[in-house]
Amino acid sequence: MDDRRYFLLKRLHSLSGVIPLAGFVIFHLFENSHSVAGAAVFNETVAGIRSQPYLLLLEMGLLAPIAFHALLGVYLARTAKLNVGQFPDRANISYALQRVTGLLLLFFIGFHLWTTRFAGIPTDQMFQRLAAAFSNRWVAAFYTLGILSAAFHLSNGLWGFAVAWGIVSGSKSMDLAWKACMGLGLVVFLMGMNAMAGFFGKGLDVLNYKAPPSASSGQAQPAAPIAAAPLTATAQ
After folding, report:
1. Is the pTM of this model over 0.70?
2. Residue 109 phi, psi (nearest 5)
3. Mean pLDDT by 10 residues, the chain (236 residues)
4. Which of 21, 199, 210, 216 has the fewest Cβ atoms within 10 angstroms?
């Protein structure tokens, strides 16, 4: 591959990691945070997503950049020259972790899609099925590793995007940008872990999710109208 094509592909790879993938990851974890409000609210959220118009086109619009980002990422990981052992500084460690977490995410996303989107789970059973899956400590550990990998890969990728596209320059501004991106990564990780804790009834409802009112909630229901009594003739 010539240098010009390699340069272009790396720019597109960086861009696809930000638009739309970074936004989708944050949105997806935000939607999953409805788990802290219980099964009814979470399943209602899933139903709302599944009822979106042109859902298949939207999913294809997401899978295309994911596939491009993943396939090119595998190529970049295979051709990467890691020298962490010789120069164990922050830049080299982050460079290596970006490749490792990318490969982990390839398996994690595939597993997640296969066991949720393509598993044929009824909408009103999604919360219960996920809660049962997370009760397995190995599945819970795998999801924890996947969320951690996604948080780092996203935040470090945003920093790399800002540097590669000339948004930040100079050692001081790049250092501040890296710290800010790592702070965002920590927020993303905590959001994901809180969403997973919601399936055990232990999540923090920091955004004040409200369950929809139901007939059994104890709230007063409007009284049915009383039919008027029929008129009868009176004796004269």
Report:
1. yes
2. -65, -40
3. 76 84 87 92 91 86 86 82 73 87 91 90 94 95 96 93 87 92 95 94 76 48 45 41
4. 216
Element (H, E) at 227: none
In the DSSP assignment, the letter for residue 168 is S
d(CA 108, CA 144): 10
Question: Hunting for tokens 């993303």 — which residue is that?
Answer: 188
Look at the chain and report how many structural domains it folds into: 1
Tokens of 206: 């920091």
Q: Looking at the domain assignment, is residue 198 inside a domain?
A: yes
Instruction: State how far the Cα of 21 lies from the Cα of 31, in Å rounded to an integer.
Output: 15
Environment class of 232 (CB within 10 Å of its CB; exposed 0-12, middle 13-18, buried 19+):
exposed
Give kind and range of the element (H or E) at residue 154: helix 137-164
Sole residue written with tokens 């029929």? 230
The reply to whether 234 falls in a domain is: no
pLDDT in tens, 11-57: 888 888 888 888 888 889 988 999 999 999 999 999 998 888 888 88
Backbone phi and psi for residue 141, each to the nearest 5 degrees, phi listed first: -65, -40
Q: What is the CATH number of the domain that holds 59?
A: 1.20.1300.10
CB-based contact 159:177 (threshold 8 Å): yes
Q: Which domain holds residue 140?
A: 3-207
In a domain, residue 214? The reply is no
In a domain, 120, yes or no: yes
**Count of CB atoms within 10 A of residue 28's CB?**
16
